[in-house]
Every structure is written in structure tokens, then in C-alpha cells.
Design brief:
Number of strands of chain B: 1
CATH architecture of chain B: Orthogonal Bundle
Radius of gyration of chain A: 18 Å
Strand order of the largest sheet of chain A: 3-2-4-5-6-7
CATH topology of the largest domain in chain A: 60s Ribosomal Protein L30, Chain: A
Number of strands of chain A: 11
CATH topology of chain B: 2-methylcitrate dehydratase PrpD
Oligomer: heterodimer
Distance between the termini of chain A: 22 Å
Order of helices and strands of chain A: HEHEHHHEEEEEEHEEHE
CATH class of the largest domain in chain A: Alpha Beta
Chain lengths: 220, 295
């Protein structure tokens, strides 16, 4: 059974939990995945998002998320003008993604230090989201858990070493998914865990032989 | 460990422990979330603060939604209320309707609201509770209690039927909200757990079959005005239950019927905007104008 505050709550900016609150969360996730202040954003909207974004303020909501606003931030309404004044360049387009979830957004971000990322996310109802692709890796990420993302060489033993770092610090793995572009090439691992991931744990996962980079995303 | 899987069990638990429904719900939430009851009450107070603010800003709202379809009706209703000699319904129903329109309009103009149970039905519960508490001169503690009773009812409906328009039609959103609001009103009036259950049954029964057919896919038409109607409807259900009127069909069977009706509703009438009001000539022309604008 759902809890009391799933029924009365969340506090949010209207009008729609899927098209507004969920859209903010997709933007927030993209920002966290980029890991630095975004200066340029290109957003492609698909399905119901593409059809109704103006009426639901989905464009404003995603831009608000990219700027780090929470789902109950009253500035969401003015997100587009705030983006202009903050120097965040943005572009909103519609696209056809075939059989993707009807509320899907593709977000391309460039950060102030030049890092680039592409994040695909869907708003799956009630403000819940699912990130389905990061930089061409198929993933499944809800934003409900502390998450460790590592990029590593696809070879035996790397995954075990990363998870044993977590085990050593008594961090419990809730969900885990590994994805690769081709055998023996670069792979991406997503580990959703129950406890926050401290700095030293993150650093230690980066030291694992075969890991090229790892970063963490707090729940949003 | 407190467990209930339907309204009857919730009522039975309250009676067995000689407490109110909200006590059972608070205890359940404390056990499942592993938080202190005080902490849970604080969170509900935060929600109530936002609910109240959304009524207060909504009755003054003159902004239009991005589509231009809604905005200003809550104020219109509230202004009419202050001159209620003109009205048929009298001050309480008018006030409830004005408050519900207010919160729904705040939602439509991208203001801050509390989903209860959803954003599309967010006006009903706060409107009924605020107007009810003003009428009965209830303090904040009583209001918070009534909100816990309402959420207990919503939890059962979500579990045994649905609170999503895409699954169950509008009966699942505005119907559920009206059931929750009726429960809260009975609680504010000091009714018994049985009367809470009767009010939920009466409120839900009369909204069964309500479809979700929003014009242009927006949470505006008919949603905003329907929030106004459904809130008044909740007041009537609460009064019926407090008068001692009983639903022939028990509340859990009504919830089960709601679930089955939701399954039987065609997808075209479950938030897809394919049929119903969304497919009227006026709705299609609104839609066309809206989406061809500055493209």
C-alpha cells in the first residue's frame, strides 16, 4: 500500500504531475549527470510531451530542472526568462522517437567546463521518471536512490571490484544494471544504493583498475 | 504492525482500539516509514500550509493559464458569494466551490499546490476541509487529523481501485478526491468511523463512471470546474452520512465497482483526449488554435 504522503502530496508546481513535475525531475537528472553548471541545452520532446508542452509548461519545467530548481519552486513558471538572464542558451524542438514512452525528452547539455552529455528520460506518471539512456548507453534510472555510475573497460572482474568497494563501506546495493556498446569496449554500470555515497568511497571506485571514471547522483 | 486492506478493516481497527481513523492511519504511517508521529504530523502541516495558501491566492487569481482557457472563475465565484442573497445554494456550497476552483486555477497557472490525490483533482480536499473547518470553527490539530483520515481512505482506493485518470478515468481522480473530502468533513464534524465509511461510499457512488476527456490534453477543461462541483458533492455526502443515511452498497464494494468500471472504460476516455468533450468541434478547434500558435 502507498503511504500517506503519496496520497496527500507531493507539494508541486502545476498543472500536471507527469508533464510538469516529472519534466522538472528529468531536467534535474540531466543536470546531475552533467555534473557541472550547464551553459547550453538542446531539448527534444516526443509524443504527448511534444503535443502538449506549451499548455503544460513542460519546456519551462525541463529548463527549470536543468537550472537545478526543485519541483515545488515557484520560479518554474518564469524558467525561460531566468535561463536567458543566467546565460543558459536553450533550444526546444519536437522529435519522433518511434516506440519510445509517450512522455519522453532527449536533453543535450554542455557545461561551463565543456563537458557534454546526452540524457534520455521519460515521465512515467505521478511525477515519477525513468532515465533510459545516457550518452548512448541504455540505462534504467529512477532518481529515487543514491546512484553510482561508473564507466569502465568491459572485462572480467571490474564489476566485482566496484561492488566490493561498496560492500567494504557497508553500502547496500538496491538495483544494478550494466550496459555496453560492444564486447570488450567501454561499458557503463549503474548501481542504485540505499545509503549516501561519501567522497572517499567515490574516489576509491575511481581507483579500481579498469574504471575510467565514476560519479554519483543523489536522489532527486 | 498495523495493517488494513480495505475501509472496513480500517473502521474495525479504529473501533477495536477505541480511537479515530486518523489515529490508525498515523500509526500505520509511523510504522511503515519508521518515523516519529510528530515528524509525520509536521509534514502534513507543511502540506496544509501550501493547501491554504493555494486557496488564498486562487480566490484572488486573475491570471489566465498558458492556453487562456481558465483563470478568474474562482474570483468570480467568490465575489458572487459575498453577495449570496442572489444565490440558490447559499454560502457554504458557494464557498466550497470557490475554494476548489481557486486551487485548481492555481494549478493551471503553474502555481504551487499539493497533489491530493493528483494535481488534476487538487482543489477538492483543501476546499472542503478549509470551508468545513471555518464553518465548524476547527483548529489546526483537528484539520490535520481530518487530513490523515482522508489519506487513509485515499490509500485504500489507490490500492483496491486507482487514483490515476489514465487507468480509471476521472472517477479515479475527482471521485477519489470527493470520497477523501467527504471522509475529512465527517471527521471535522466529530462523526463516527462508520459515518466516515458511509460518506466515502455515498460520495464515490455518485461519481462512478466519470470519464477523463480533457480538452487539448490539458488539466483545465472540464477539470477546473469539475473540482468545484466535486467539492460541493463531498459536502453533500458528508451531510447525508452525518444525518444517518446509509449506502446500501458497502464502501469497499463501491471501491471495487469503481475499479471494474475503470477497466471497462475505453482507453479513448482515459486521459487520451481522443473522445468525449475532447472530441467536440469546439475542443478540436481550441486544440488546433493552441498548437498552431507561434510554431
Amino acid at each position: 500500500m502507498r503511504g500517506v504522503f503519496d496520497i496527500i502530496g507531493p507539494i508541486m508546481i502545476g498543472p500536471s504531475s507527469s508533464h510538469t513535475a516529472g519534466a522538472v525531475r528529468i531536467g534535474l537528472m540531466a543536470r546531475k549527470i552533467l555534473g557541472e553548471e550547464p551553459v547550453q541545452a538542446t531539448i527534444e520532446l516526443y509524443g504527448s510531451f511534444a503535443q502538449t508542452y506549451k499548455g503544460h509548461g513542460t519546456d519551462k519545467a525541463i529548463i527549470a530542472g536543468i537550472m537545478g530548481f526543485a519541483t515545488d519552486d515557484e520560479r518554474i513558471k518564469d524558467a525561460l526568462s531566468i535561463a536567458v538572464s543566467k546565460g543558459l542558451e536553450y533550444q526546444i524542438n519536437t522529435t519522433d522517437l518511434g516506440d519510445a514512452h509517450p512522455n519522453t525528452a532527449v536533453i543535450y547539455l554542455i557545461g561551463e567546463a565543456g563537458r557534454m552529455t546526452k540524457v534520455v528520460g521519460a515521465s512515467i506518471g505521478g511525477g515519477n521518471i525513468r532515465i533510459t539512456n545516457i550518452d548512448e548507453y541504455d540505462v534504467e534510472l529512477t532518481g529515487q536512490y543514491h546512484t553510482l555510475i561508473s564507466i569502465h573497460n568491459d572485462r572480467p572482474g571490474v564489476i566485482t571490484k566496484v561492488t566490493s568497494v561498496l560492500a567494504k563501506y557497508k553500502i547496500n546495493v538496491a538495483f544494478m544494471r550494466v550496459s555496453r556498446k560492444s564486447r570488450g569496449a567501454e561499458a557503463l554500470m549503474i548501481i542504485e544504493v540505499d545509503e549516501p555515497i561519501p567522497d572517499d568511497v567515490l574516489e576509491e571506485t575511481k581507483q579500481v583498475h579498469g574504471v575510467t571514471n565514476s560519479f554519483r547522483i543523489p536522489p532527486i | 504492525m498495523i495493517k488494513f486492506k480495505n475501509v472496513q478493516e480500517l473502521i474495525a481497527l479504529a473501533n477495536e482500539k477505541e480511537v479515530a481513523i486518523y489515529d490508525v492511519v498515523m500509526q500505520y504511517e509511523a510504522e511503515t516509514s519508521q518515523l516519529q508521529v510528530d515528524k509525520i504530523i509536521d509534514t502534513m502541516k507543511q502540506n496544509w500550509k501550501v493547501m491554504r495558501e493555494s486557496v488564498e491566492s486562487g480566490i484572488r487569481n486573475q491570471d489566465k493559464s498558458a492556453s487562456g482557457l481558465v483563470g478568474g472563475d474562482a474570483k468570480r465565484m467568490h465575489d458572487y458569494l459575498t453577495d449570496n442573497d442572489k444565490s440558490y445554494a447559499g454560502s457554504m456550497p458557494l464557498k466550497v466551490a470557490a475554494y476548489a476552483l481557486a486551487v485548481s486555477e492555481v494549478n493551471a497557472v503553474m502555481g504551487r499546490i499539493v497533489a491530493c490525490p493528483t494535481a488534476g483533482s487538487c482543489g477538492i480536499l483543501p476546499a472542503a476541509v478549509l470551508a468545513g473547518a471555518q464553518q465548524k470553527k476547527c483548529d489546526e490539530a483537528m484539520i490535520i487529523n481530518a487530513l490523515f483520515t482522508a489519506s487513509g481512505i485515499g490509500m485504500v482506493i489507490a490500492q483496491n481501485a486507482s487514483i490515476a485518470g489514465a487507468e480509471g478515468g476521472c472517477q479515479a481522480e475527482c471521485g477519489s478526491a470527493a470520497g477523501m473530502a467527504a471522509a475529512a468533513l465527517v471527521e471535522l464534524a466529530g462523526g463516527t468511523p462508520e459515518q466516515v465509511g458511509q460518506a466515502v461510499a455515498l460520495a464515490l457512488k455518485n461519481l462512478l463512471g466519470l470519464v477523463c476527456d480533457p480538452v487539448a490534453g490539458l488539466v483545465e477543461v472540464p477539470c477546473v470546474k469539475r473540482n468545484g462541483f466535486a467539492a460541493v458533492h463531498a459536502v453533500m455526502a458528508a451531510d447525508m452520512a452525518l444525518a444517518g443515511i446509509k449506502s446500501v452498497i458497502p464502501v469497499d464494494e463501491v471501491i471495487d465497482a469503481m475499479y471494474k468500471i475503470g477497466l471497462a472504460l475505453p482507453k479513448s476516455l482515459r486521459e487520451t483526449s481522443e473522445e468525449g468533450l475532447a472530441n467536440t468541434p469546439t475542443a478540436r478547434s481550441i486544440e488546433k488554435n493552441l498548437y498552431s500558435k507561434d510554431k
